[in-house]
Each structure stands twice: as structure tokens, then as C-alpha cells.
Amino acid sequence: MASDFSFDIVSRVDLQDVDNAVNQAKKELLTRYDFKGSKSSVELLAEKDAARIRLVADDEMKLRNLQDILKTRMAGRKVPLKALDFKTPEKAFDDCLRQEVVLQQGIAHEKAKEIIRAIKDLKAKVQTAIQGDQLRGSSRSKDELQAVIRHIQTLPLDIPVQFTNFR
């Protein structure tokens, strides 16, 4: 009897790389001339179930520059920029602007349904199941699973996806 092969579709970000990128952004913030004497800051707020980055800047131009610094440092550490969800800036103390950047971890239920629909439209003989914040695809053929992986990589998703546990 032939065994089933499977893989998991996950959306995870390595928090150590995020922490390193934030620390590099802090160092660059201290050395840049346009941020001398400003109240601008970057900090990582990591809880057990979610991580956020808080940006504080004096005005909108410095906030945009701070976003660019953060994006550059994240890209340098191979953190996918799709995982960064920039919320709307809000007023903070002393006429500063504060912006939360949420790191997206896991696949939301609606996004999981969208991925499953795309797999079914491919008409591959692959069974998919939602398991918490990840998806599991299984089939009797490794070729079918590899075709599904290639198809998912071409989809215009707004979250980063990785493929793990290919067995």
C-alpha cells in the first residue's frame, strides 16, 4: 500500500532576525544626521503570542525615513516585508507621531480558505486541511504536492508563506 506524502504551509517570521534588524535600525538612527536631536525611536515589543514594532518620530518625513530604515534592515536580514503590517500613524506626546508595525504570524482563517480554493482550482489530487494557523496538504504523489507548492508560490498573497515538513 502506498503511503501518503504531506507538507505544511506556514507563515512565520524569525523573531531573532527581527530583533537584529530593529537593533541595526536603532544604531543607524543614532548615527544619521537628520535624526540628531530628535525624539525618534524604534523598539520591538514582543509578547508570547504576537510581536509589534513601535516607531516614534517628530514629523511625517522622519516617520517615512524611519519606515525606510526599518524596511531596509528587515530586507537585509531576509525578513519578508509582507510580514510587516504598518498601522495608521497616530499623535503621541510632544507633537510626535507613533506608528505600530504588527508582525504577521500564522495564516488567518480567511486567507487559508483562499489558499485552499486556489489549490482546488488547480484540480490536483491533493487534500488540504486547516490546522490552527497553518495548512496541511497531503497526496499519494510527490509530483502533485510539488505542483501545488509551485502554484502557491505564484499566487499574489499579501502574507509570506513557507513550506515545511515535506514528507
Features:
single chain; Alpha-Beta Plaits; five-stranded antiparallel beta sheet; 36% helix
What layout of secondary structure does this protein have?
Layout: E1 5-10, H1 15-31, E2 41-46, E3 51-57, H2 60-76, E4 84-86, E5 90-91, E6 97-103, H3 109-121, E7 127-131, E8 134-139, H4 142-154, E9 162-164
Antiparallel strand pairs: 1-8, 1-9, 2-3, 3-6, 4-6, 5-6, 7-8
Helix pairs in contact: 1-2
Q: Could you please describe the fold and organization of this structure?
A:
- The protein is of the alpha+beta class.
- It folds into 2 domains: 5-12 and 107-164, Alpha-Beta Plaits; 15-103, Alpha-Beta Plaits (2-Layer Sandwich), CATH 3.30.70.
- 36% of the residues lie in helices and 27% in strands.
- The protein contains 4 helices and 9 strands, in the order E-H-E-E-H-E-E-E-H-E-E-H-E.
- Strands 2, 3, 4, 5 and 6 form a 5-stranded antiparallel sheet that branches.
- Strand 5 (90-91) and strand 6 form a beta hairpin.
- Helix 1 (15-31) packs across helix 2 (60-76).
- Uncertain ranges: none
Query: Roughly how much helix do the residues carry, as a percent range?
Result: 25-40%
CATH topology of the largest domain: Alpha-Beta Plaits
Strand content: 25-35%
